[in-house]
C-alpha cells in the first residue's frame, strides 16, 4: 500500500511511496498526476522503493512563481533523489515524464541507473509545425478563452487513448486532466513546446527500455524505434490494446514487460539511505 509524503522545498512536492529496494521514480505526463501509476506501485513495490510524484504545479504539489523552464523538472528529480539519499535511481517516465527522464540522463548521467520510457518523444522537433500547433491549441486555447481543465478533459482524453480503452480507463484519464492546476498546466504546455529538442539522446549512457501502446497516435511505435536506434538498439516493447497511456490501458502487459527488463538491472540503482518506512 502506498502512502503520500511531501518533499520539502520550493515548491514542495507530493509523492506516493511504496516498497523496498533500489529507488524507482515514476513521472507522469503533461496531463497527469501521481495517480496515473496506481496500477504499477503494487507490482513494483516487492522489488523497488517506489516514488510516484506529482510534478511541480500538479496534483497535491505546490504551484510556483514565474515561468517554467523544462529543466526545473530535472532539478526536482535531483531534489527527490537527494531527499531519500539516493545516488542513482531508476527513472520511469510517461510522455512528458519520459522526456524529463531522458533530459536528466543527459545532464546528470551519474544519477541515473536505467530509463524506462513510455509513450514519449525526444522533443517537438519530431513533430511537424502543424502537429505542434494542434497539440497546444487543443489544450491551451480553450483555457486562455476562460474554460477550465474539466471542460477540455474528455476531448483530450479521447484523443489519447486507444480504441480498446475501457470506460473506467478513460474516466481515470478524464479525472487526472480535470484535476490539473490551470495556470501551471499552461506553463507546462509553453515550456514543452519551447523545448523543441531535448539534446542528442545518442549521448545517453544509461540502459533504456522503450514501451509504447500499439495504438498510440500521438507518439507512435515508429517514433520509439527511431529513438531506440539512437540509443544503440535499445529494446522496444509494443503493448497491444493500448494507446498513449499504455501503463493505464494495459497495466498487466506493461508491468510484465517493464519488470522483466528492469529487475535484472535493479542493482544499477541505489537503495535509499533515508526511507520513511
Structural class: alpha/beta
Could you spell the SSE succession in H and E letters? EEEHEHEHEHHHHEHEHH
Biggest sheet features = 8 strands, mixed
Strands across the major sheet, in which order? 1-2-4-3-5-6-7-8
Helix content: 25-40%
Number of helices: 10
Number of domains: 1
Note the gap between the termini: 12 Å
Q: Which radius of gyration do the C-alpha atoms yield?
A: 17 Å
Looking at the overall shape, the CATH architecture is 3-Layer(aba) Sandwich
Tertiary shape: globular
> How much of the residues is beta strand, in percent?
15-25%
Descriptors:
single chain, about 280 residues, alpha/beta, Rossmann fold, 8-stranded mixed β-sheet, globular
Describe the structure.
This protein is an alpha/beta fold and 277 residues long. The chain has one domain (3-268): 3-Layer(aba) Sandwich (Rossmann fold). The protein has helices spanning 41-44, 70-83, 96-107, 129-144, 149-160, 167-178, 182-194, 221-230, 246-249, 251-262, and strands at residues 3-7, 13-19, 23-27, 49-53, 89-94, 112-118, 208-213, 236-239. It has an eight-stranded mixed sheet with strand order 1-2-4-3-5-6-7-8, sandwiched between helices. Strand 3 (23-27), helix 1 (41-44) and strand 4 (49-53) form a beta-alpha-beta unit. Helix 4 (129-144) packs antiparallel against helix 5 (149-160), helix 4 (129-144) runs antiparallel to helix 7 (182-194) and helix 5 (149-160) packs across helix 6. The chain is globular, with a radius of gyration of 17 Å.
Amino acid at each position: 500500500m502506498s502512502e503520500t509524503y511531501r518533499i520539502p522545498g520550493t515548491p514542495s512536492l507530493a509523492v506516493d511511496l511504496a516498497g523496498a529496494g533500489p529507488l524507482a521514480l515514476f513521472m507522469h505526463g503533461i496531463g497527469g498526476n501521481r495517480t496515473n501509476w496506481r496500477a504499477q506501485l503494487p507490482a513494483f513495490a516487492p522489488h523497488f522503493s517506489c516514488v510516484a510524484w506529482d510534478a511541480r504545479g500538479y496534483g497535491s504539489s505546490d504551484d510556483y512563481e514565474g515561468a517554467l523552464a523544462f529543466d526545473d523538472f530535472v532539478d526536482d528529480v535531483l531534489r527527490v533523489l537527494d531527499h531519500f539519499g539516493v545516488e542513482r535511481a531508476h527513472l520511469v517516465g510517461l510522455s512528458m515524464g519520459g522526456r524529463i527522464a531522458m533530459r536528466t540522463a543527459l545532464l546528470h548521467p551519474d544519477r541515473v541507473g536505467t530509463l524506462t520510457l513510455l509513450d514519449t518523444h525526444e522533443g517537438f522537433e519530431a513533430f511537424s509545425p502543424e502537429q505542434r500547433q494542434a497539440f497546444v491549441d487543443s489544450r491551451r486555447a480553450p483555457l486562455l478563452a476562460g474554460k477550465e481543465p474539466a471542460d477540455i478533459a474528455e476531448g483530450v482524453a479521447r484523443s489519447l487513448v486507444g480504441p480498446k480503452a475501457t470506460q473506467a480507463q478513460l474516466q481515470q484519464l478524464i479525472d487526472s486532466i480535470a484535476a490539473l492546476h490551470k495556470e501551471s498546466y499552461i506553463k507546462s504546455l509553453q515550456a514543452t513546446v519551447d523545448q523543441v529538442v531535448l539534446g542528442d539522446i545518442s549521448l545517453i549512457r544509461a540502459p533504456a527500455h522503450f514501451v509504447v501502446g500499439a495504438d498510440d497516435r500521438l507518439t507512435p511505435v515508429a517514433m520509439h524505434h527511431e529513438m531506440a536506434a539512437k540509443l544503440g538498439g535499445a529494446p522496444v516493447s509494443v503493448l497491444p490494446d493500448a494507446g498513449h497511456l499504455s501503463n493505464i490501458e494495459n497495466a498487466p502487459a506493461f508491468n510484465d514487460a517493464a519488470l522483466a527488463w528492469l529487475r535484472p538491472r535493479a542493482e544499477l540503482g541505489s537503495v535509499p539511505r533515508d526511507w520513511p518506512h
